[in-house]
Amino acid sequence: MSNLTIWLKPIWLLSLGTTAGLLVLLVIWGILFLVHRRLARSISEAVSDGILLPVTYSLAVLGGLALLASPTMEPGRVITSLERLFKVGTVEVTTTVPANTIDYPLEVTFRAAELQSYSLESEQDLAVNPTKDSGLADPLLLVKGSQLYQWTPGSNLARGFEEDVESLYLTNESDLPSAVTAIFKSDVEMSEVHYLPIAAGSVIVLYLGYLLVTLFARRASIIAAATAKEAISQPLYLLLILVGVAALVLYIYVPYNTFGEDVKMLKTSGMTTIKVLAIIIALWTASVSVADEIEGRTALTVLSKPVSRRQFILGKFLGIVWPILLMFLILGAFFLLTVSYKVVYDARESAKATPLWEECFVEVVRILPGLVLAFFEAVVMAAISVAISTRLPMLPNLVICGSIYVLGHLVPLIVKSSVGEIVFVKFIGRLISIVLPVLDHYEIEGAIAGASSVPTEYLLMAALYSLLYCGAAMLLALLFFEDRDLA
Predict the structure, then answer these.
(1) Are 13 and 75 in contact (CB under 8 A)?
(2) What is the pLDDT of residue 1?
(3) Residue ranges per structural domain of the chain
(4) 10-residue block means of pLDDT along the chain (487 residues)?
(5) Is 186 helix (H, G, I), strand (E, B) or coil?
(6) How far apart are CA 315 and CA 296, in angstroms?
(7) What is the CATH number that goes with domain 89-186?
């Protein structure tokens, strides 16, 4: 039972965040229902008629599991940390202590248990105390003039502060005033709760983004909903989900013989598996939904209604993105669970000490950027497939997209290698990298599997690159489809 609690706790904590996001959305919907019932009913119809319904079911299942597991998962500690979340951080105070001054107040407040590090710098010798009337006789800290006093966990200096601090008192007995700079960094006792607002915000952004598309692109969203339903109802979609789940479970027990690095191999294999399965369903759906409808003249029937070709292409693209997103949510949640369990399993198989749940949590959150980048790559490949499907049937589409996938990953490596020194190879490599997507930007499984963290700026730049390339692919699709004879 103790091991079960260890590897389930990271998933439980993230599930609390997603459940909180759902509750916030439910409260907003309740307010809308009281103020504008027609709009609230339209939102309910949009949720129940589109991809958000299975997403809601999936998140509700996670919320139910989180609620059932809460009695064994320290909910009180989580609540306490959440209450203190916006009261901690880095505080920098600069002041001047007059000469021959005792107990000069410095307005700094923090809890000793939350103190992460601090530094004090003074021009003159300075005594620092949490109470008055101590001075230089028995100071808690003695800061030498023009010397930085910096404490961090593991440093040789004394921590000093063992009790909560409401104010500090500085004593300067020299004949000169002293400029003082104090920096205190604190964090909540359970620092992992920082990810709860991120999880809740992600759920809110997902729902609001879908509803905004439904509101401002009504006809395209109707086509998207029909396309998404068709994709999810295909036996291939369920088959790929089951294949993904089976592969992720199998990766846990595969002996990689890496001398304690099996967790890294599992993370790399799992991310690649989910990405490839998502790309397969994207290419298949684009071929079936776009190329087959054009060849079967179903598209002509749709366009005979008040639907433009632009709305048709945009709707088909969005209808392919939604099933990809659902696949990433389902397999991604299962992947996080397997990674967390693998940490405990690997420690047991290697005869190591039982890891803490915080170690499992670190491994889990480290792969989240990788899943986001893999989703971006699958969306870019979906946009390319839609553009090709406006002119070519399924088999050429699969061949061309497969070639683009290989070149997108291979060309940057060739250009950087010794072969890339050849002028012709270098020119062709740069030309292909301009025309085709540089999929190597999304390939950071090695960094994610290791101890490296992915900066937020990198994710934002990858999102912008994906958005621009998808926009270019949609423009190309419109050019191909604009003069296509559907009769």
Answers:
(1) no
(2) 47
(3) 89-186, 217-482
(4) 78 91 92 89 84 87 85 84 88 90 88 89 89 75 87 82 87 89 91 91 92 84 86 90 94 75 84 92 85 67 72 88 92 92 85 85 89 92 90 86 85 63 70 78 70 80 92 89 69
(5) strand
(6) 18
(7) 2.60.120
CB 359 within 8 A of CB 343: yes
Residue 308, by phi and psi: left (phi above 0), alpha (psi -120 to 50) or beta? beta
Q: What is the pTM of this model?
A: 0.87
- Neighbour tally for 42: CB within 10 Å: 15
Of 365, 388, 416, 371, nearest to 11 by C-alpha is 365
Predicted local distance difference test score (pLDDT) of residue 25: 92
CB-based burial, 286-299: b 16+ in 10 Å, e otherwise = bbbbbbebbeeeeb
CA dihedral 442, 447, 452, 456 (to 10 degrees): 0
Helix (H) or strand (E) holding 264: helix 262-286
What sign has the CA pseudo-torsion 389, 392, 393, 398?
Answer: negative
pLDDT given at position 452: 64
Show the beta-strand stretches assigned E in 136-208.
141-143, 149-151, 168-172, 178-186
Q: Tell me, what's the pLDDT at 133?
A: 73
129 bridge partner residues: 169
Closest residue by Cα to residue 317 from 474, 207, 469, 465: 474
User: For the chain, first and last CA: distance in Å?
Assistant: 65
